[in-house]
Specification:
Length: 422
Amino acid sequence: MTHKPSRRTFLKTAAAGVAAPMILPSGVLAAQGKPGANDRINFGLIGAGRRGRQVMPRREGVEMVAFADVNRVRLDEMKQTFPAARTFMDYREMLEMDTVDAVVVATPDHWHVLPAIHACEAGKDVYIEKPMTLTIAEGRALVKAARKHGRVVQTGSQQRSMKECRIGCELVRNERVGRIHTIHGANYPSPWECTLPEQPVPEGLNWDVWCGQTEPRPYNIDLYLPRAQGRHDAKGRLGWISFRPYSGGEMTGWGAHGLDIIQWGLGTDLSGPVEVWPEGEGLKCPVSFRYADGVVVHLDGIGPGGGAVFVGDKGKILVDRGRYAVKPGSVSSEPIGDEGIHLPVSNDHMGNMLACMRTRERPIADVEIGHRSATMCHLGNIARWTGRKLRWDPKKERFQDDDDANTYLSRHGRAPYAVPLA
């Protein structure tokens, strides 16, 4: 495959009802829940671990004014860097602050949706890390909350703000390799049950709250850390991201990136596949999907971890994190005209959210998009767990004629941490 980087600037800013302005219009005035063009935006961070520190906005016009975490040591560290900020062991106290305009939710996956819903109810905009949800039903609940309260919710699928990913998906959408009929992705493992021994809970860590909606189990550092600093056992890499009570495994970890690129390239941001099935047995068997138009996706390990290989009648297009490649290369040499531009433009994922906070337009990885991409990940896991082909209705968001499969759409949540699904 030949890499053909394009220097063309895509200017169109809307697709499928999603807008991503990067230039503020004149006359934007401040109002309740809507910062003005020149107003400082105050952020709070929920989950002050490694990822939270990476994605929280540090730029002109933005101030970090509050931090919430169940680990007091992390809060003390943030206080040293941001001495004027307030810190909380309970994020709900942060949400009571009138001075907080928006929050970043960078908790473990089982703690994503509840604080995001509470933030929407408190009138705060939300940047939520991917995968957006632990279950499909949680995703729909967050979409409803965001729409009800008129909040901007940006999912942390930052590849939508990478130029190369956008160009690659534009080439797919413009049928530069003909009609797409097959897509190959990575073979993302599903999670397994945690069987780690008990260790003493570190001082300052509220372990019961960390467990949240899951049933409490003994503390172990290889559960508390997301990928356990690379440590493995016989089943694979340790860390909460690998364990079923807390995450969807790498199917939702890295799969949230790769499957999001597939959704973007196919133009199915507001929909999804209609069938899913396992190509074998176990938590690492290949999984396949079929869309209503006949396109088939194989998570067979042929595609890259952060994207996919789109196969058409006339060639192939690889789209991955920060790169794209086309075979034959000649099909990407002709510039895409204005009439062929389908995708919104963002080269700065957090900057896109900040702009949308001022205009109140929907960001490039809007909550509905994040929900649909996470849903595709969950479908892959459910197919493995049930071990059979499933028919999915993306409008009703239910499996057809399969009550057993539908039991996986939500999960029992421990009070008082359960996500409200009604």
